[in-house]
Amino acid sequence: MAAGAVLYRNLRTFQIWGANTEVGKTVFSTVLCNAARAKRDRVQYIKPVSTGNIEDADSSHIRRFAVDRHLDKDDAFSSLCLHQYELPISPDRAAAVSKLHIPQDDALLTEIAQVLSQRAELGGWAFIETAGGVHSPGPNGTSQADLYRPLRVPAVLIADSKLGGISQTIAAYESLKIRGYDVESVLLFEDDYYQNDLQLKAYFKQHGTPCRTLPKLHAPQPSKEKDEELMLRYYEKHSQSPIIEEILAHMKQRHDDRIKNLESMPSRAHSKIWYPFTQSTMLSPEKITAIDSARGDYFQTLQKGDSLLRSSFDGSGSWWTQGLGHGNPQLMLAAAYAAGRYGHVMFAEAVHEPALQLAEMLLGYLSNPRLSRVFYSDNGSTGIEVAVKMALRAARIRYGWGPNEKLGVLGLSGSYHGDTMGAMDCSEPSTYNEKIEWYEGKGFWFSYPTVSCVDGRWTVAVPPALQQHFGADKPFRSLADIMDLERREAGREYEQYRVFITQTLKKLRDEGRRFGALLLEPVVLGAGGMIFVDPLFQRALVSVVRSSPQLFADDAHFPSSSSAWTGLPVVFDEVFTGLYRLGRRSAASLLQVHPDISVHAKLLTGGLLPLCATAASEDIFRAFESDDKSDALLHGHSYTAHAVGCSVAIESLKEMDKLDATGAWDAFKRTWTVTQESNDDEPVWSVWDKSFVEETSGRARVDAVWALGSVLAITLKDVSGAGYKSTAAKDVQAALFAGDAPEWNVHSRILGNVIYFMAGQTSTQESVQRVQEVLRKVLV
Amino acid sequence: MAAGAVLYRNLRTFQIWGANTEVGKTVFSTVLCNAARAKRDRVQYIKPVSTGNIEDADSSHIRRFAVDRHLDKDDAFSSLCLHQYELPISPDRAAAVSKLHIPQDDALLTEIAQVLSQRAELGGWAFIETAGGVHSPGPNGTSQADLYRPLRVPAVLIADSKLGGISQTIAAYESLKIRGYDVESVLLFEDDYYQNDLQLKAYFKQHGTPCRTLPKLHAPQPSKEKDEELMLRYYEKHSQSPIIEEILAHMKQRHDDRIKNLESMPSRAHSKIWYPFTQSTMLSPEKITAIDSARGDYFQTLQKGDSLLRSSFDGSGSWWTQGLGHGNPQLMLAAAYAAGRYGHVMFAEAVHEPALQLAEMLLGYLSNPRLSRVFYSDNGSTGIEVAVKMALRAARIRYGWGPNEKLGVLGLSGSYHGDTMGAMDCSEPSTYNEKIEWYEGKGFWFSYPTVSCVDGRWTVAVPPALQQHFGADKPFRSLADIMDLERREAGREYEQYRVFITQTLKKLRDEGRRFGALLLEPVVLGAGGMIFVDPLFQRALVSVVRSSPQLFADDAHFPSSSSAWTGLPVVFDEVFTGLYRLGRRSAASLLQVHPDISVHAKLLTGGLLPLCATAASEDIFRAFESDDKSDALLHGHSYTAHAVGCSVAIESLKEMDKLDATGAWDAFKRTWTVTQESNDDEPVWSVWDKSFVEETSGRARVDAVWALGSVLAITLKDVSGAGYKSTAAKDVQAALFAGDAPEWNVHSRILGNVIYFMAGQTSTQESVQRVQEVLRKVLV
């Protein structure tokens, strides 16, 4: 697997970057190596990739000018070049024309990590010198700034003292900074004429980074001997200069501070942070995960011991948000561009490009002819409140209900729509809400059959109370068969569902209950416990509601427009399920239902920051039209449609579509589609192996399993009989966090006795399989 | 005033940037000028700042090698250098050693804008060539990338074809991009050896920007004549090459597309966007402001005519969010760094540096010994819901109320806390909420005296219904006198307030009402209409509530800890008032009250993106402790404590503090403090002139005025008697938007008959005075 961030307690590791080529990276590296040696510290120098004659290579230079050349023996000093290509051109091209091995990017990082790991116990310093400028390509053409980012080694930037060097240095610094590197010092040669150091010292002072100079090198000499002699003299003179001593001391301090800060974070957090959804009496500093940084599918988390960081697979997708990977440079650049172009700008009665473009793009993306309008808010909860305000008003206006008519929502048992009061009121009483002082569930929630794989067999399970209506659990050949709604609609169960739903609604009407919306999480109920609802039941529910206005209003009403809602406005909460989370742009498409209102958040920004879009039909929109200003939809947050969020969302939607279009998920899909009809061009699939799911569902500790899109949910048997307090899932979670290797573990979240996992849309097969592997071991 | 973005319909304006010095900016500029001329287009070349011998200057070069040198006469071609300094070093140093005039940054932009403006009607092309690399300093040392950003002219980047040039080019591109520049084409010389163009073409293709090459220049010639001859031949050959024709056509297309996009935005938005708080029947495309970009205090908005953009003062601070200016590069860099380092990472039971650092910093910032915990959410509404959940639970536990006891909040009439249902329920019925289907006001709201300047006199106005208790309106010598609470507490009105409040609460208790929190917007009620509440009344209210537990519970209870709440938990909604909005870190400090819970958003991120922090006391926190997981505070959004938001907030708090500490607001303060006691080191002040406020309050159309911190609120007389539907404020708003100059206007928002203005914490005196000036004219 890919290497993660490296941080060893006693090995102070820094990476030397150049603001340009030919700025003296190797000279400063040599000075730093020598200065450290002079303090009797051990030193490891690594040049991962070098081009040009090996004689002139930086690692040879370092060795040649080491203060004490005999110290190699006792490991006090070592200088390594990992990959050397002969042509003195950029590494990608030099590697390509050579006959030598070209390491993959990940492999190169692993090599570096291994060298450091072997060196870690000896302690001292390690300096890793890059080649050329910050964006000079590595052996596979990747910009070094991106290539080395997973290691996140603190940087020393060698600034450019030549004409134009101020600009080169600041631009290079920004390119490192925006990727999440910490630049800990800046060094450059003096130059009496250009005096770039004056401006640069002032600039870096503002950024809290020391910037120091050493005297200019001698002019190139005609004789090599003379040149070496002068070089040696330079090193003798400057390797112990107070300037370099100060810089080394600063770097040591920053290294120590970083560790101290990381190690103190859990206890400081324990005393200052009020955590969401966390009973503080059950929390202790040891249980708080300190996260140093993150990249792709992994957090870099603090662990005990000498190697302080390990890669933790982000098993909950950071509360279901992650799609395009942590620290994604494209999303970062989109965010920065919008921050630079707009900051945040007023949205009411104004328009800016990202908000408009995202609205247009999202409406196209959802392929739902009903949806024509986008309303922005900040997160799923607020987006649901907006949706409910929309739906209730539309129903009230259509049916002519007065302001005192109490309206509820129709939904499913176990649904959950967010933590604001209005969103909470959309769900039936549960541990999530019933103790909240102002909570008052407003609606009716149906029970329903569920889908999962049990003992290797795909099943639609019917809860005992519903068996009188629908019969016993039904086995299916495959998940694809369960999702084949067209075929199943022709069968008997669909009619059973419709009859049951109709009878229930009649009873509710006769009790005088009024409803203003059908609110569903399509296909999967997330927070309620990762419940995979039989899609046929949801389809039947929508169908009955839409075809039966008489069940909701005395004055049944069929509008003429085909895109207008009938019965009740149908609201889909796609905050969790939408935007490829379940393998498709929308979960609605799995149900083949076009909702009247659709709510999108979480993956909307690819996993970077909060934004929500509630899309609605023109028919719903028009319900708020009147001559009275106060009939408008009275909702709007200060940062509504903030440009940064909208820009990141545009980039995310584009990128997810591109992944889809270019077949990025084909390898995953193949494990699911072999048994499906070949003409099904939108198959049901998951990044989790079909065979893994089926096999796992047969384990003794496992009750049921399902996987769809990037989600895997495993229900564990409650062997203790403790119900909600069962520790079955907690035990598995703990075993995964303990991990089976020092450099790797799995961070996950549980919901009661369900442990679930969420890959991103850019997760590799390797990542996913590694999790499956460890799950196989843990679930024995 | 500062120049804004320039965009002329017929003058296709581009800025030529170099990825490095010596990459051929002037050669490519000449090629572009000549190619445009060859198409019989008019051309304007501008070199704003040049260093070195005038003979060798770029503007001379351009003229020397113009295709048709005789075309100057009919304005077909013009080449200008605005500032020439003789020494061939960086412009800041060259300017410093010269005896010549050094233009301020703003003045330089204005000069450029004027040249373009004069040229606009002629149409054609304008090319503005920068000096050195993207971050090379301008004449005052500002990086050019920042210096020229207000003009936001589309960029042509001349890439570096030399060794290391790939890195230099990408770094330069990123530095432009993250400031919100649109880079529309990339040009460079061919180089058979380094072949940077291969990698760069692939890179820019991914970014949707064409990258093209021209052949390398000839080697420098010993004879100047020979050199000129070869140069001329080069231009003759390449000025009409298909490559340059294609690039020019692309640039023309991008220019036209930008205008087309801008001009179509209002109607597209009108058909696709569902606007917050907007009655759609009253909206038409003409009323929608198209925002191209923003910088500092100004939006760049679309206007009719040939000059398509003007600077619009962001009078509502983009719904009260703005503090450190639009497009602030520091906030952008903080956001990008966090996006690169983390993306977003899981927060429940985890910790990352920005979230922890912000919590610690905010607790210190608020100087409230009661507050010890920070809970994160996404915006003010959710932060208030969190606060209410906290307070109600604490009260219920303390007083042993059962789950069926209905609890309300105590507050002030006209208060408003956000648009989610729970936040809405905290306010009394009003136009904002009473039509919302699930709204149910839960509480009691006091009436109170208010503060404003009326006819030049600072007054505490008593509403008629309260005059029996408090007497008539009271005049004061100054706002400072009204805010001198220590002195006023000794007076009779304080006792009157206390008696009235106590009697009211007794009556409520006797009616069987139960309350779980006192919830206040300290000093100013925002959305309720910019109401400046008499701070003495708020102080009395807190004092009575805290000292009278017997008014709220049968089992009155005084906890022993001095930091524990008494009576009821006191919640301050500082979403609008806090973090220097009213001139202090907190509005609580103006009241000299330490709330038990304090909610912060809006300015928390300096105006960039949504984030909220609810700070609470340890005593409140402990109310949620139990052995039962479900007693925890059940609230948490997916992006809780997102790293980007927290990092931007840290930067914002630091920067606002720095502004405070370095006396950035001293000039503003001086207009308010001359009459104050000299020993008051935390004066009451505003960025709006005291004399302006007093003078304006005497205008015939004006009812009352107040200013505090960055806020100015003007209540207009409702001459029509139409009440809420009065158009008095709307008329002023329209006059301000019409503006008094083609390049400038004021965008503002109104609340009923109140028009208000909100400067940022980095607004200049010039900005503020310009608004005051136009207000003086409009309010005649």
Note down, in words, how this protein is organized.
- The structure is a homodimer of 780-residue chains.
- In chain A, 37% of the residues lie in helices and 19% in strands.
- Chain A has 780 residues and is of the alpha/beta class.
- Chain A folds into 4 domains: 11-258, P-loop containing nucleotide triphosphate hydrolases (Rossmann fold, 3-Layer(aba) Sandwich); 266-319, no CATH class; 321-389 and 572-662, Type I PLP-dependent aspartate aminotransferase-like (Major domain) (Aspartate Aminotransferase, domain 2, 3-Layer(aba) Sandwich), CATH 3.40.640.10; 666-778, Aspartate Aminotransferase, domain 1 (Alpha-Beta Complex).
- Chain A has a 7-stranded parallel β-sheet with strand order 3-2-4-1-5-6-7, sandwiched between helices.
- In chain A, helix 18 (492-510) crosses helix 19 (535-547).
- The longest helix of chain A has 31 residues, at 242-272.
- The interface between A and B is large, with 169 and 168 residues.
- Strand 8 (289-295) of chain A pairs parallel with strand 11 of chain B.
- Chains A, B: Its main location: mitochondrion.
- Chains A, B: Keywords: Aminotransferase, Transferase.
- Chains A, B: Pfam families: AAA_26 (PF13500), Aminotran_3 (PF00202).
